[in-house]
């Protein structure tokens, strides 16, 4: 895919990645509803990982899930505003960047995937359950994975690559 092609070139390739995250998220949520909403959970790795069905009316880790309904629109507006900011951020990044826009695309796709659920249904569909003994991590979905992986990538960028990028920018300016 040559970068001179406006269809696949910078920054469109990152928006395509975000779209892939949204599509995979929605498709897996539809599958999870079909398989697990009225049926038993599926053990993937017994004692560690299962597919199940849960509805999250709040934000991360069910924060404000029992707030009475206003949180649907509140979190929807936050997700929409955040998505606009991330879209502009990706658009303004230099074409040479790879790690940062990839991270932002994963976050954008995850935010839009969960926004889709929140606006259409009033809650987010989750289905991946990780647990060990009596310990249970909150049930999550593909959108949450995109957000988490993208956030981890941004942290790695800040910790290990931000200084190198600023040094490259200084060298380019001084030349």
UniProtKB/TrEMBL annotation:
Function recorded in the entry: This protein specifically catalyzes the removal of signal peptides from prolipoproteins.
HAMAP family: LspA
Native source species: Microbulbifer okhotskensis
Chief localisation class: membrane
Catalysed reaction equations from the record: Release of signal peptides from bacterial membrane prolipoproteins. Hydrolyzes -Xaa-Yaa-Zaa-|-(S,diacylglyceryl)Cys-, in which Xaa is hydrophobic (preferably Leu), and Yaa (Ala or Ser) and Zaa (Gly or Ala) have small, neutral side chains
InterPro entries tied to this protein: Peptidase_A8
Gene coding for it: lspA
Active site: 126, 144
GO biological process: one example: proteolysis
Record carries keyword Hydrolase: yes
Protein name: Lipoprotein signal peptidase
């Amino acid at each position: 895919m040559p970068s001179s092609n406006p269809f696949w070139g910078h920054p469109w390739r990152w928006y395509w990645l975000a779209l892939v995250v949204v599509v995979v998220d929605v498709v897996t949520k539809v599958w999870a509803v079909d398989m697990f909403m009225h049926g038993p959970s599926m053990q993937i790795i017994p004692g560690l990982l299962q597919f199940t069905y849960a509805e999250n009316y709040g934000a991360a880790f069910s924060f404000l899930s029992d707030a009475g309904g206003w949180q649907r629109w509140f979190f929807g507006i936050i997700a929409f505003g955040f998505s606009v900011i991330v879209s502009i951020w990706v658009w303004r990044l230099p074409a040479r960047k790879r790690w940062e826009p990839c991270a932002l695309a994963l976050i954008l796709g995850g935010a839009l995937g969960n926004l889709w659920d929140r606006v259409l249904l009033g809650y987010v569909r989750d289905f991946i359950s990780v647990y060990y003994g009596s310990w249970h991590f909150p049930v999550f979905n593909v959108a949450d994975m995109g957000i988490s992986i993208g956030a981890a990538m941004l942290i790695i960028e800040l910790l290990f690559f931000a200084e190198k990028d600023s040094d490259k920018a200084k060298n380019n300016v001084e030349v």
